[in-house]
Write a structure and sequence with these properties.
Rossmann fold; alpha/beta; 11 helices; 8 strands; globular; 8-stranded mixed sheet
Length: 274
């Protein structure tokens, strides 16, 4: 498994396929394995780079609390290694990281796919009557931060996957998720602490696909709506009967939408260059 040093710690990533690069960023409490089926679909057309974000899978953590800029540096390092603009895909926390990178280095993003990015800071920017959305998220974050054991992670898993999900998991899976509790708490803190105004994201010119589930928690759906009305070249796709984990539960639909978006962005670039 290849490793790359980013800000003093080792980041593991998979590297498959050939062609222009695509970088895939997983959700909190996940690993690059989340993208196995999408990688198989893309690798005949793209060089697919999928890292384990800090503290997950085979990647090390970093002293202190990483912020989104620190996580975005992972994308920058992989994009530099690939040697050109990338098709960037991020889900949940990975989506928040992708959004930060697209703002920092827009020239390096050929296309952007955000699947319910947890850009929680957008929920605290003066949306009257919407305070409950942020409060809902903060309650889950507080549970994970306070109870870094089965109790905290049980609330986290059930919130994003549906009530009863934690109870249905085998004990080894619960233990594995519990080991990520401290990192999940750090992810929440990073996503809430971001201080970029919504209007600033208008600077992102890349074609953007925003995916959400029709049954996802209201805060996640609201963030997609805010970004969809702000990013200048954005398109929202809502997947019926899907929740927050739609890249796993509805992978065929999601993968098909992502592939079409990436290839469509490529054709646009070719036409502009002709």
């Amino acid at each position: 498994m290849p490793l790359i040093a980013v800000h003093g710690s080792k980041v593991a990533y998979s590297d498959r396929g050939n062609g222009p690069a695509a970088v895939l960023l997983h959700s909190s409490a996940g690993t690059r394995a989340q993208w196995r089926s999408l990688t198989e679909m893309l690798e005949g057309k793209r060089r697919v780079l999928a890292p384990d974000l800090r503290g997950y899978g085979e990647s090390g953590g970093r002293p202190g609390t990483p912020d989104l800029a620190d996580e975005a540096a992972i994308v920058g390092a992989l994009a530099a290694r690939a040697g050109g603009p990338i098709d960037l895909v991020g889900h949940s926390y990975g989506g928040a990281v992708a959004l930060r990178f697209a703002l920092e280095q827009p020239e390096m993003v050929r296309s952007l796919t955000l699947i319910e990015p947890v850009a929680f800071h957008l929920l605290q920017q003066g949306w009257a009557g919407r305070d409950w959305l942020l409060a809902e998220v903060q309650a889950i974050a507080a549970a994970v931060t306070r109870d870094r054991n089965g109790a905290g992670m049980s609330r986290f898993v059930d919130y994003w996957n549906g009530s009863g999900t934690w109870a249905s998991l085998p004990e080894d899976k619960r233990s594995g998720l519990t080991r990520y509790a401290a990192t999940v708490a750090e992810n929440f803190a990073a996503a809430v602490a971001e201080a970029i105004p919504l209007e600033t994201y208008r600077q992102i010119q890349a074609p953007a696909l925003l995916l959400r589930g029709a049954r996802s928690p209201a805060p996640a759906r609201r963030i997609v709506a805010l970004l969809g009305s702000t990013l200048p070249n954005a398109r929202i796709v809502t997947v019926a009967d899907a929740g927050h984990m739609l890249p796993l539960t509805h992978r065929e639909i999601v993968n098909r939408e992502i592939l079409a978006h990436i290839l469509g962005a490529e054709r646009t670039v070719e036409l502009q260059a002709a």
